[in-house]
Amino acid sequence: MSQVFSKIPASAPITSSCMNYVHPWTDSCLQAICGLYLYCIFDCLRIYGSVYVLTLLMKGRIPTKNDIKHTLYGILQSTAFLSGTGFGYSLFLCSLRKLMGNFNILTVSAIPAFLASVFSILIERPSRRTLLCLYVSNVATETVWNMAVSRNYVKNIKYGDAAIFSSSIALLLMYFKGGHHKKSGNEDSMFRVLRFVIGPYEEKDYTSSRSSQANSFYRQQEQNDGRSRSGSWQRSRPKTNFVLHIVNQMLSIYKKIINKIKCCDRHHACPHPFSCLYYTMQGAGKMFSIGLGIQISLKLLLNMKSIFQSPANVKRIIWKKETLNLASFLGAFSGLFRSVSCILRRISGKDDPKHAIPAGIIAGMAFTRYPDTTVSLYVLWKAAQVTYNIGIEKGVLPKVPGFTEFLYCFSTAILFHAAILEPTNLRPSYWKFLHSISGGRIACMNRIPLDAWGLNTSESLRTVLAQTKTVPVVHF
């Protein structure tokens, strides 16, 4: 690629004015700062207004006065947080330029973003800071990896997403089986997801002394009741409707098969009711159905316009091979984890939380059916967070005050640095977010002076604008 300037060391500063780089659309720093801040406020009100109102409606009840008050306060507080980041970023860019007389590789974006984040994150509620930290750390990790790949420091690994997901989810599953999530008294949302996917029986101390006798009795009762109901139905129902009779016979046969599967062998160390075979099949079937329902619903929702134009498009939208990807992943993950756990319990003769490591790794291989970098990195950072919290509770790791806030600010600095100097390494969705929240200003900042560092910044910007279909136009 051609470069406007010859390469200079990354440590060398560039003597460019604020107008030539930060805000070429105006010669006033104050006007640029205030313009960005006002646009951020209105756009943040739109974003957080939709998010908080939707959250309020999803509660499924008529909102009370306190609910409305809490929602309005949350909208205003989150708007102040996010718009404050935009205000601080522009403010520190111009201020550091006036203070130092030039820009360097750090002050061109990273340090202003870090300083702006330090002040803005303190505005947001403490309960939301961890979620924000996990999100930006997720995107920043992917960005750093892309930067390393573009420099040929590392190479992309086939099924790397699945490897990250498998190892991370195995660690979380071990904590889940070991009951670590209950000791702090504040259960993480990730463990609620795991309970839903793999079932509550794998949780520590789920079963009690009554479980073995109750399960055996219940299995026997189910078998007897199934036979008696099917027999009485066949005797009492006249065979006047042939189709209905066939359906009833099929249901009766299905029920007998299920009852036989339920009453197959179950190891005494297994905490679940019914047989291990039924336990595996039930988990896989349930999660496959849920995954298929989610995928079809999303496809129909996202293609609503084309469906209204031609209802015949429904068949074309649904009947695609990729429609089964999410269902295959969820079903295989649940089924593999349950089956491997049962096998390990039979081999060892006990239920051990460490069984979750091999079971989780094997089940995580199903992630190859629905690979997603965002999901794998989120699980990785969630595993790191939970491990850190457990280490603090056990006294193994020290509690570092403000670590969450620092990690958020550091990750944000990486993202803003990449957005300015090498936007092709930034996740496209995050670039669109920055473009939207800044009213196009992030694309209008003049990259030509930055080409002196040899990162092909201007060319990278043109590539991203074409890929994301964004335009370098300042909106007011």
From TrEMBL:
<protein>
    <recommendedName>
        <fullName>Transmembrane protein 135 N-terminal domain-containing protein</fullName>
    </recommendedName>
</protein>
<feature type="transmembrane region" description="Helical">
    <location>
        <begin position="70"/>
        <end position="91"/>
    </location>
</feature>
<feature type="domain" description="Transmembrane protein 135 N-terminal">
    <location>
        <begin position="17"/>
        <end position="149"/>
    </location>
</feature>
<dbReference type="InterPro" id="IPR026749">
    <property type="entry name" value="Tmem135"/>
</dbReference>
<dbReference type="GO" id="GO:0012505">
    <property type="term" value="C:endomembrane system"/>
</dbReference>
<feature type="transmembrane region" description="Helical">
    <location>
        <begin position="36"/>
        <end position="58"/>
    </location>
</feature>
<feature type="region of interest" description="Disordered">
    <location>
        <begin position="207"/>
        <end position="235"/>
    </location>
</feature>
<keyword id="KW-0812">Transmembrane</keyword>
<feature type="compositionally biased region" description="Polar residues">
    <location>
        <begin position="208"/>
        <end position="221"/>
    </location>
</feature>
<dbReference type="InterPro" id="IPR031926">
    <property type="entry name" value="TMEM135_N"/>
</dbReference>
<dbReference type="Pfam" id="PF15982">
    <property type="entry name" value="TMEM135_C_rich"/>
</dbReference>
<keyword id="KW-1133">Transmembrane helix</keyword>
<feature type="transmembrane region" description="Helical">
    <location>
        <begin position="103"/>
        <end position="123"/>
    </location>
</feature>
<comment type="similarity">
    <text>Belongs to the TMEM135 family.</text>
</comment>
<keyword id="KW-0472">Membrane</keyword>
